[in-house]
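Human:
Care to share another protein and its fold?

Assistant:
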Amino acid sequence: MKALNVIAQSFMVGAVAALIFAMAPTKASAQDKSTTTFRHGTPTVETAVRNAQVVYVEGNDLVLKLENGKLEHLIVPDSDRFTIDGKDVSVQELKPGTTLTQTIVTTTTPRYVNTVRTIEGKVWHVSAPSRVIVSLPDGTNQYFNVPKDAKFVVNGKEKSVFDLRKGMKFNATIVTDKTETIVANNKSVVGEAPAPATPRLLGVLLFQRPTTVALAPDPTPTASVTAEHAWFRLPQTASPLPLIGLLGLLALAISMGLKTARSKETL
C-alpha cells in the first residue's frame, strides 16, 4: 500500500517582512503585479515501522490489532495494495491472522518563498512610525510594516510615514518572505499470511499405519502337516473298555483273596 501525501504548512519567519518604499510616479492606471520565487532547503528523512495483525476484514473495512493491544478500524480504498508473501493483494483478499508490517518514510523539506508585489495603493490608516493600512486595488485592506526612513512619493513629492493621510495614493513594492514545510509520506505494507489451522482434536487419538497388501491364498490347500502337529490330526482307533474290564477283574480277585484269608484265621 503506497501513498504519497504532500502537505504544505506555512510558517512566518518572525513578523511579516513586508517592505514599502517609494517608486517613481507614473501616469499608468492602478496596477497589482507580483513575482514569487522558491528556494528549497535540506530535507530530513524519518522512518517509522509499525506491526499489526488482521483481526477482521469485511469489504473495505479492516480492523487491526496494534502492538500495544489496541484495535484500529480503517476503511481501505480498493486502490491500496498489500504485499503478502510476495504477492500484491487487495484489502478484500486479506485473511484474519495475517501479520502486517507498515514502513512509513516521512521526508520533510523546508521551502523559502519570496514574493515581490507591485501595487498602487491608497492610505486607509496610519500608525506612525512603523505601521500603515493600505487599501489594495482589489478592494481589500491589508496591514504592512514600514521600514525605518522609508519615503513615499505622493503626487511627485517625497513624504515620510508621518506625512501620510487617509486617502493618499502612492506606488509601492511589497516584499514578503515566508517559510513553508513540505511533508511527503511514503507508506509500504508487507505481510505474512497465517499458517493453515490445525484441526481440533476430538475423542480418542488414533494413529493410522501404512496398509500392508495381503497375498491371495492358495486355492489348493496343502495336505502335508508338520510332525509336531501330527498328533492333533491322528484318528482315535482304540477304546478304553477293555482296560476298564481288566481293572474290574483285578479288584474282584483281590476281594476274594482277602475273604479266604480271613476264613483261615477263624479256624
